[in-house]
Amino acid sequence: xxxxxxxxxxxxxxxxxxxxxxxxxxxxxxxxxxxxxxxxxxxxxxxxxxxxxxxxxxxxxxxxxxxxxxxxxxxxxxxxxxxxxxxxxxxxxxxxxxxxxxxxxxxxxxxxxxxxxxxxxxxxxxxxxxxxxxxxxxxxxxxxxxxxxxxxxxxxxxxxxxxxxxxxxxxxxxxxxxxxxxxxxxxxxxxxxxxxxxxxxxxxxxxxxxxxxxxxxxxxxxxxxxxxxxx
Amino acid sequence: xxxxxxxxxxxxxxxxxxxxxxxxxxxxxxxxxxxxxxxxxxxxxxxxxxxxxxxxxxxxxxxxxxxxxxxxxxxxxxxxxxxxxxxxxxxxxxxxxxxxxxxxxxxxxxxxxxxxxxxxxxxxxxxxxxxxxxxxxxxxxxxxxxxxxxxxxxxxxxxxxxxxxxxxxxxxxxxxxxxxxxxxxxxxxxxxxxxxxxxxxxxxxxxxxxxxxxxxxxxxxxxxxxxxxxxxxxxxxxxxxxxxxxxxxxxxxxxxxxxxxxxxxxxxxxxxxxxxxxxxxx
Lengths: 231, 282
Ligand SMILES: Nc1ncnc2c1ncn2[C@@H]1O[C@H](COP(=O)(O)OP(=O)(O)OP(=O)(O)O)[C@@H](O)[C@H]1O
Ligand SMILES: [Mg+2]
Description:
By secondary structure, chain A is an alpha/beta fold. Helix content of chain A is about 35%, strand content about 30%.
């Protein structure tokens, strides 16, 4: 069963078409990356199953169920948790409350607020401060923690390394590998090829709203990857 | 003096219960509900009708329940479909609703003033610092305090309260976490409308019922919401206390200007602090 599959999907914002016949698939426990330059439509893939962009053609499958009409909550209720680009921490909620928000549709599983605090001790220390009072890296941890609170089968990460220092990116890479090893599927949308190499097994390249290439990452150097994406 | 302050609290309490409903609805639906005063008025009339058969307490329960249901209908038929439209569309529709509700009430009960008796259990008076004050009015103050405490607790400590706070700031992110924000909004509009019913019911024995009774108090509650800082619950509480006092002192000491004073106060506060008491949380 696919955790998430797009089949020939066209997506729009109003009348502006952004995705053109996009197809990809992520099975259970897979780690897949989507690469592509700025503005090619990577976030629009996420927005399509979050009900932010409109899917007009093709078909999306989430956790085995086919859907065309998406509400914002549809993905979360199918076990897909998104760590959105820009993190989207709710500014008026504390760190703890932001985490609890993530548990609104929690499935049975190992993740609890205690375990998230164990993974990111800084969040425990700052549990009662407003979420947006954290530094960028800490906010990214909060966004990841919030997604884990749902005990997702698939974790979708939209440019998690954006704006973060290399040491923090290393730390995140380690955490994503651990999550994957525990059986959580991972869809990593990134422009940081180093991070992609360490986390994913397979990749798709998106260019101008269409998938132009796909393959396995094993054996590919960062330089080769860069060339694939630069076309 | 003390009696004046207490009377100011009574009016402030009624204002708060109305204004907090406006704040709740604005927070979730980004709608200024011009029909809110009419919901207050309908609440008064429903209570009047039920009280004639079942007494005040049954009237209170029925009125709140009827208005809450009306709130759900209003959310489903007006606020939700119009949520992504130009706000002016919603304003016009709620304004139209105001006219319709007034006409419905006029058709059923007529234009004449009606008066609802004070419930017998609260009909007495107490002596406070040597002056006589009706027990019923004390109860109105108490109800407002209980509403404030109850809402605060609900918003701070309950799960749905968390969703309400989150969706009023960022409905998309809240939805992405799996929360059905339209359901949350329906609950919130039901509570806001139910509170308007509550306010109308407890106001009914204090003021004569008329189809236009909602207009004046609606304007004052808008002033409360603006002075408190659009979208702020604690701001609305403080502002309601203040406007209640100002209104009452105006009525007692400078009656010819009493209806202008809250406006002047609003203008003053906005000059001093353009975002209202709660500042910047809009
Ligand atoms: N909400 C929106 N409404 C209208 N157009 C949008 C919206 N979001 C993105 N777009 C447009 O869709 C196109 C693809 O944007 P998208 O955000 O999907 O790109 P991206 O690959 O995620 O870019 P980045 O790497 O900068 O995050 C862009 O031309 C963008 O301007
Ligand atoms: Mg993007």
